[in-house]
Specification:
There is one protein chain. It is built from twelve helices and twelve strands. α7 (189-192) links the parallel β6 (174-177) and β7 (196-200). Strands 2-8-7-6-5-3-4 form a seven-stranded mixed β-sheet, sandwiched between helices. Strands 9-10-12 form a three-stranded antiparallel β-sheet. The protein is an alpha/beta fold and 390 residues long. The relative contact order is 0.16. The chain has helices at 15-25, 37-57, 70-87, 102-113, 131-136, 160-168, 189-192, 241-279, 306-315, 335-339, 344-348, 361-389; strands at 3-4, 64-67, 93-97, 117-121, 142-146, 174-177, 196-200, 211-215, 284-285, 296-300, 318-319, 350-354.
């Protein structure tokens, strides 16, 4: 039987979200932009989902823009802010952390080629971004700071509120990629003090290809996708009614279960680490200490590549990852761990285990046991190869 321990990559569509979305995949297929009743029912369902999302993040419904996911949301913010600066005759200067998701770092590289200046803020060995480091990177031309709320590889949660407070004095907007955080830890846009926040539905039991962007009232952005007047002119394209409905329902459900799930997931992570440490006390934990997502454990074992473990565990029916899903198979060291001060070799040894709603203690026990067995197998084979060479 398969054991899925890669929930940071994606989650299963919740039964409750599927039930809510099903009518809009079948009989209720009207276009939400249509003027007749058939279309108005879709529009009403989208409005309900918008209120659900707004209630969870402490926003007004009018501030929520539905997107196709976190990547679109991040691109909308970064490109939009740069475009706004250029229109005003300024050189766009953006400050981001060195451990951002590729959907932030890649558009930053594009903007650099177009003339923007990007500064990358270093992090501590625990993967933390200090507000003072952000302040050191600011200039008169800074039009945006982007720091993720929770890291997708090591699970560290940043003190976004402290960064926001610093930027407030300087009038610099702050974007938080909250893709890994929303639905798993409390997220309140007012308490965080951010200007923009992005999330993705498939990370908390919604459908793939759905997400949302929160933009504070008055902090408007030019649309990334132009066309019709959907989303109040902020994002063109016929709405994915079923996906949006599923997102709203999945998020509501995740928040209702959040405290209970967090306690259980922290227990599974602690149990897994305890079992591995019992056999291999030398195991490294990446991003340990401080605020942390409840279900993510990122470890490293000297001399054992993470990708090798992924493949051996896959043969046993266990799904884990060596890096973020967006970087899997690239055979390059994790930029997150490299930024945290680990060597290239150590970064290649990373293995991420991420538990979710369906995970059990039996799953955690099997994951730990199979990791230990896989490491022993790799070390045995490595020892034989070394001996043969000698």
């Amino acid at each position: 039987m398969m054991i899925y321990a890669d929930h940071a990559a994606t989650t299963a569509l919740s039964k409750r979200a599927l039930a809510a979305a099903l009518p809009f995949l079948q009989g209720e297929y009207g276009n939400a932009s249509s003027a007749y009743a058939f279309g108005k029912r879709a529009r009403k369902a989208i409005a309900r989902a918008r209120r659900q999302v707004a209630d969870v993040v402490g926003a007004a419904a009018s501030e929520i823009v539905f997107t196709a996911g976190g990547s679109e949301g991040n691109n909308t913010v970064l490109r939009g802010v740069a475009e706004r600066a250029w229109r005003a005759g300024k050189r766009a200067h953006i400050v981001v952390s060195a451990i951002e998701h590729p959907s932030v770092l890649a558009p930053c590289r594009v903007l650099e080629r177009l003339g923007a200046r990007i500064d990358y803020v270093p992090v501590s060995q625990e993967g933390r971004v200090a507000a003072e480091s952000v302040a050191a990177g600011l200039s008169e031309e800074t039009c945006l700071v982007s720091v993720m709320l929770a890291n997708n590889e090591v699970g560290t949660v940043q003190d976004i509120a402290a960064i926001a407070e610093l930027l407030k004095e300087r009038g610099v907007p702050l974007h938080a990629d909250a893709v890994q955080a929303v639905g798993h830890i409390p997220v309140d846009v007012k308490a965080l003090g951010v200007t923009y926040l992005t999330a993705s539905g498939h990370k908390f039991g919604g459908m793939k290809g759905t997400g949302f962007l929160w933009q504070r009232e008055g902090a408007e952005l030019p649309p990334l996708i132009s066309g019709g007047g959907q989303e109040s002119g902020r994002r063109a394209g016929t709405e994915n009614t079923a996906g949006i409905v599923a997102l709203g329902e999945a998020l509501t459900e995740s928040v209702e279960r959040m405290q209970e799930d967090a306690v259980r997931l922290r227990g599974l992570v602690a149990y897994t680490l305890q079992m591995i440490e019992r056999e291999m006390p030398e195991v490294r934990v990446h991003g340990a200490g401080g605020a942390h997502l409840p279900g993510i454990l990122n470890i490293g074992i000297s001399g054992v590549r993470g990708e090798s473990l992924v493949h051996l565990l896959d043969l046993k029916g266990i799904c884990v990852s060596a890096a973020s899903a967006c970087s899997a198979g690239t055979d390059v060291p994790s930029h997150v761990l490299r930024a945290m001060g680990y060597s290239e070799r150590e970064a290649m040894e990373a293995l991420r285990i991420s538990y979710g709603r369906e995970s059990t203690q039996e799953d955690a026990q099997r994951v730990a046991e199979e990791i230990v067995c896989a490491v022993q197998k790799i070390r045995t084979l490595s020892g034989r190869a070394t001996h043969a060479v000698i």
